[in-house]
Amino acid sequence: MVIRVRFARSVALAVLAALAAGCFALVAAYVLNQRIPVLWGRYTASQTACSGTGRFTQCILTGDWVSNDGSRAVTNLTLDRRFVPSGTVAAGYRDGAVLDGEGLIVTQSGTQMTPAPWIVLAAGVGCSVAFYRTLRRD
Questions:
Q1: pLDDT digits (tens, 9 = 90+) for 122-131
Q2: Which residue among 2, 24, 90, 121 is least enclosed by CB atoms within 10 Å?
């Protein structure tokens, strides 16, 4: 019985440590992405695939982005949005972003179109606290 408890505790510690490390790595990637300059332009969706209804509608758009000065264009860029923009929208592009080879589309306000890092940071802290409590438990 003691071996099962130790094994379960060891597995729990390994899982919590991996989750905490992954969450903190995602927050670090978000912070690094914020330092990459944004090139502003226009995004036009050519394909839209939506699922869900009402306020739970989630759409994945595929389209083209062209910089305001016309010096840079990216085709077949996928954009995750909860609400579908109509027509062409103003958007920025971050080339060479961490964890995203295509770059990141940002809104006109300058925020990334990805979940806020606070959710992931809170999950990392929660996993760290659970790891500590599991480690200290007799």
A1: 888 998 999 9
A2: 2
